[in-house]
Write a structure and sequence with these properties.
Strand content: under 5%
Order of helices and strands: HHHHH
Number of helices: 5
Oligomer: single chain
Helix content: 55-70%
Structural class: mainly alpha
Number of strands: 0
Largest sheet: none
């Protein structure tokens, strides 16, 4: 498999957006990330903070479902785990602040 190399997150970001081009993919990522965040907060609140790795389950379940069944591509997590994780949070922030649509028009 031909894996593209990126020298920075700034170089990776346009690739990440291309791998998340469908609104349903982005929505499922948003749901997964917010669910994971809610789970982390809940686990900390009830004093079971050591269980926080369980929050990865809904986060990745929603994201990977989106990639395999909606976008029909391979999740970037498999080839660029850190930048993919950072991309998830940047995409979520842009979606929640309404900047995702603006960015799409400028691409």
């Amino acid at each position: 498999m031909n894996q593209r190399r990126f020298n920075s997150f700034a170089e990776f970001w346009p690739h990440y957006l291309g791998e998340h081009s469908k609104p349903a993919t982005r929505l499922l990522h948003c749901i997964g990330t917010l669910t994971a965040l809610g789970l982390v907060i809940s686990l900390i609140a009830i004093g079971k903070w050591w269980l926080f790795p369980l929050a990865l389950v809904p986060g990745y379940a929603f994201a990977w479902t989106a990639h395999f069944f909606v976008e029909k591509n391979r999740p970037a997590t498999f080839t660029h785990p850190l930048w993919s994780f950072m991309g998830d949070w940047k995409m979520l922030a842009q979606m929640l602040t309404g900047r995702m649509r603006v960015q799409n028009r400028s691409r």
